[in-house]
Every structure is written in structure tokens, then in C-alpha cells.
Amino acid sequence: MIHTASSTTPLIAIDAVVLDTETTGLDTNKARLVQIGAVRLRNGLIRTDEVFDTLINPGVPIPPATTAIHHIDDDMVIGAPTFPDIREDLRAFIGDSIVIGHSIGFDLAMLRRECKLATLMFGVPRTLDTRLLAQIANPKLPEFSMEMIGKWLGVELADRHTALGDAIATARLFQALVPKLREGGIRTVAEAEKACRQLTEVLEEHQRAGWMEPVAPPSRADAERTLSRLDSYPYRHRVRDVMSRAPLFIAASTSLNDAMRQMVEKRISSVFASAELPAEGTAPAAVATGIVTERDVLRAISINGPGALVRPVADFMSKPLAAIPEEAFIYRAVGRMSRLKVRHLGVVNERGELVGALSARDLLRLRASEAISLGDEIDEAISVPALGAAWAKLPMVARSLVEEDVGAREVAAVISREIGALVRKAALIAEERMEAEGRGLAPVHYALLVLGSAGRGESLLSADQDTAIVFESGAPGGSEDQWFAELATHVGDILNEVGLPYCKGGVMARNAEWRGSLDTWIERIDGWVRRSRPDDLLSVDIFYDLRVVHGDAALGHRLLTEAYERGHRAAGFAKLLAEIGETYRPPVNFLGGFKTEFGRLDLKKGGLLPVVTAARVLAIRHNIVRRATRDRLDAIRGMGIGGETDIARLNAAHETILKLILRQQVTDSVEGHPLSSSVRVKSLDRVETEELRSALTALGHAAEITRDLMFA
């Protein structure tokens, strides 16, 4: 299936048609088409088995001068179809795909002319131009012919001056340009379009030559609606909200008949089975558990007859158990059931222990939608480009949720969960690469962590990589550490390639200070709590937001609890972290106006920092092992040490800031502007302006509130 390219589609994963034409001349008011060639890109890969290639009878003599270039003469086109004969086939081949070409404005002008001569409608496709992209990537090239660009990129061009040959050559140039563009911060279709529109002199030159506009104007790009009428319920609620708690466990040696009897008595449709029943008050690990459902019983009797009822459930249960975290959003469960073609899932906590069951019956109230598949498309991506294509759906989902007035915290939580899924998939691909390189499997158990906003569940669309690794044992610089350094390098490169850029502050597991054994991490944490200056602790605070996204969940959970315990015992450590927020001053002048830069207000530094810091510091100080800012603040209030009004104002300010940043990022992602936490103040209406002013005023008291509550 070919997907329509959206503004947020990464160039590496684009589905497109690369097109070229040969003509009777270069004057778009007089020339006629004599050949059209096109090749398809799927997830950024050239598909030479999917091509469009045809000669066209122009109905006029072909000048010898042009024949000398493309070697097509009058005799060759005598029996060829006319343009009206092939127009529908060409339109079907292109479909809704973006069209790429070298100086594509000329080809578009020729297609428009042929449609006009045949009194046919001409639908302008969305396009990208490799000639313009090359100038963006390397403006110092002496010229921007295909030959010159190919020489610069090291791409050999074959079969030149045939339409299909040039289309394939253009596709290869496009592929080679993508990493060069990424180095310049251009990753998506919209960003490429925006950069092309800034080459005004070139565009004017093309216009004077009678060529068509080679890139879609902003109004057309903004009109796209890939996801419409999104059912927001699965994005608002989590599995824990609908799962069946206290699932029934039986021994794997239990007879099928007894299992069926217990399901009937308790009116449930499945039971979990394991070799040993869990002790009272405990839960077994999902990896050691199987499941038997009503359908399994009926299938067993149908195949084996009544004798199946006396056999143990171990003979018929499904293992390993398909499971999903209790914190996952419901859309994840719907997608997983659909992909695995199952009707039951186990529900696990952070330590991988079974705490509930989820059945298709629990989800009957939900409607399916294209967006439901978002998570599983990430999980099932078989290549880096496919992973990029799946990741590109996220901004569209966020846009739809924003338009349905889903709360900013809920949207941020969805984004954060998918960042976790993306990092996990990158790790799986990286593990495969390591094994293919002869580096083998992980030498010891490990956990891959996301930190900062992704760990808190508060990431927005401008997220970058904040990762860490904890492994079971091994010294810094030792063989285990070296293996995980290589793994983390692969993970970081994959994430950067698909659209989650490197962390500018270097908070990535590829760097030695962000990976280590459990003992190394504990020693590192002990060093943190002994520090005497806040400057020594820059980036340390986001470690306390950690969430395990891959590997040994119990190992990561142990590290988190150890970190909180040590931070809790060291009052001076929390006090130092609090000093980071002491310098905050609301970006509002004495007349009540906002202090902007180029018309924008940075609401990460100017809004999120004080409330996130306050909540984190108080959580560490009072040993509240929570991640989300709202959960931390609510827990403080629940302990009776936080004023109801103060906490409510901080919570409201946090939601307001997130909402305004998210809405701006949704707009910027479509328009091709670099994503950031800066908001265009003039785009706010009167109500939003007052909400922002009130939020910033409340945040001006965050440091004072933190001081009051640290030792309450």
C-alpha cells in the first residue's frame, strides 16, 4: 500500500514517484512529450520492479537536434500511444504520491501543456526538486546539473537521456541527498519544501522560463488531512482503566476440564497457567506464564475429542503470553490484538509481573481507526526507513488529538510512550546489527532507559534523545561496557536517522557517563549527592525521570528506587537541584507584556523549567518514586505538606504551557518550521494570552513553594 506523503514524513522514509520526461524541445509553450519514465520509492527505497516507461507519439516531427540528445526519432514513435492514451495509466501510477524530479517544474509544465491540448484536467501533485535540494545541501557547487551533483555525492549515473534512466538516476541522487540534508537540519517533507521556497532567485528564473512551480505552496501543504474523525478515547485512557484485575492463576498441571469449570464459575474467558502457582500477594512474571481461553478449550475438544478434557492445560495453553503494560494507552492494546490476531492479553507492571487481563470484550466500545496501528507499526518495522515511516504518523495523530481538544498532558503521554517504543525498536535493530557483525548477544542482562520528558510522559514533538543504559555487571571500559557502547552508538544513529535527533547536551547512552553497571551507577549517584555546586549537577536531575523501555525491567526499577533512596537521604542534594529553579524569572515585563525574541517566547526555559524542577526536587526530597509532574505534585498534596491552592496553580500552569507549546509545534510541523518550545505570541487569542500570563505569574512562585515544602 502506498501512503500519501504528509508534511511530517521523514525524507528517508518517503513513498514517492520519481519522474522524468523527454520532449521535442525546451520551450514549454511549443514542445511536446515523446517519452515518460517513472520509478517508485517505497519507504525511501528504489523499486526498479515498479516503473512506468512509455514512448509517446507527439503528433509533430522530432527535431534532429533533440534526437541527438535522447536518441528518439520519428520512426520510433510512429506506433506509440498518444498522451491521452496513456494519461489515465500515468495518473494511476502516481496516485496520491509525492512526485520527485530534477528541475521538476519543466516536467510539470510539459504535462500541463499536454493536458491542455487534449482538454483534460491537470491535477498538480505535491513535488520535490533534486536540483533545489542539492543547492540547499551544497550551495557552493559550481552548477547543479545531475552530473555535477552525482560527482559531488559519488553517485554514478547510467542510462542518461532516457526518461526512465534519468528517473532512476534522479532517485539515486535523492537518496544520496537525504543524509546531507539531515546534516543541515532538514528531515521532513515540509522542511524540504520550506527550504526550497526560500531559493527565490532560482524559482523566479524557472518562472521566467515558463516552468511550473516546483514545490507546493504552504496553503496546499496545510490543507492535508491524513487522519480525520479520530476516535480519541483510546488515546485518553490506559489499559489499567479497562483491564480485569486479580486474574485467575492455575497450575499448568490442572486438567482442561477443571480450567473450563473455573472459567464458567467465575464468568471469565481466560485463565493464566504456570508451572508453580504464585504465593499469596505476589504475581508471576509474564515470561513464565501461559494462557488458556474459552476458544482454546473448544479447539482442543474439536481436534482431540472428549479425551482432551482430562489432559493438563500445559498441552493446550499459549506461551509465551502476549502481554501489554498497564500504563500503555488503549490504542496500543487494540493494535496489538489486531496484529497478533488474539483476543486476550496479559497486563504487566513495570517489573514484568502479571497484574491483570484484557480481553476483546473489554474493548468493544472502541472504534478502529488508521491511527490505532501507530504503535504496532513502530514495533513491527522491518527496516530503518519503515521505522521512519511509522514514526512520521505521530505528528498527524497529535494534530488530530489537539483538534479534538484532548488535554495536552494526555497528548504528551502518547508521544512519550511512542518515543519509548521507537527507542526499544531501535535497540532491537541494533542488537541484530551487533549479532550480524559478529559481536554476539548482550554479555549480561541490561535495561535501556529514556530520561527527561520522555521518562516523565511529557514529551512534545520537538523531543530529542535522552537515553541511558544500566547493565548487570562489568567495569567501566571493560568488555561488557564496550559491547554496550557499540550498541548505544547503533541505537543513537538509528534514532537520529528516523527523526529523533541526537541530544545536544550529550545525554545519550553512547557517552560513557550515561551507561554503566548497577554498581557503577550507584557509585555515580553517591558522587552526585556529595556535589557542592548546582553547576556540577547539570543534566543529572533528568536521570530521576528514568523509564525502562527495553531489557530487564526489574534491573531498571531497582536502579530507580536506589537513586531515589540516596537522593532522599541527602537533603543537600535536593537543595542543590532546587537552586536550578531559583534563577527563574517570568518572561513578563513591568507592563505585563511578554519578553519575546523574534516574536516568539521560549516556554521551555520560560515556563516548563520551574514547575518540572519543583515537582522533581520535592519528589526526590520526600522519596516519592513518581515520574509525571502532575503525579509528583498530587502526591505532595496527598502527603498533606502542600497547599491546595499552590499545587492547583502549578498544575494548571503546567497544563497551559504544554498546551500552547504543543499547538505551536503542530502548526510548525506542517509549515516546515524547525520544532522548538517557542510560541509565536501574536498567534494567541485573548483568552490564551491571559491564560499564559496567569501561568507565568504562578510559576514565579515555584521556587518559593519548593523551599517551603522541602523540609515540611
Descriptors:
712 residues, alpha/beta, CBS-domain, Beta Polymerase, domain 2, 4 domains, 29 helices
Let me know the number of strands. Answer: 18
Structural class: alpha/beta
Distance between the termini: 60 Å
| Largest sheet entry | 5 strands, mixed
Q: Spans of 5+ residues with little confidence (pLDDT < 50)? A: 218-229, 365-371
Residue-averaged pLDDT, rounded? 88
**Which strand order spans the largest sheet, edge to edge or round the barrel?**
3-2-1-4-5
CATH topology of the largest domain: Nucleotidyltransferase, domain 5
| CATH class category name of the largest domain | Alpha Beta
Radius of gyration: 30 Å
> What is the helix content?
40-55%
CATH architecture of the largest domain: 2-Layer Sandwich
With helices defined by DSSP (H or I, 4 residues minimum), what is the helix count? Answer: 29
Number of domains: 4
CATH superfamily of the largest domain: Ribonuclease H-like superfamily/Ribonuclease H
Descriptive account of the structure:
- The protein has 712 residues and is of the alpha/beta class.
- 47% of the residues lie in helices and 12% in strands.
- The protein is built from 29 helices and 18 strands.
- The chain is globular, with a radius of gyration of 30 Å.
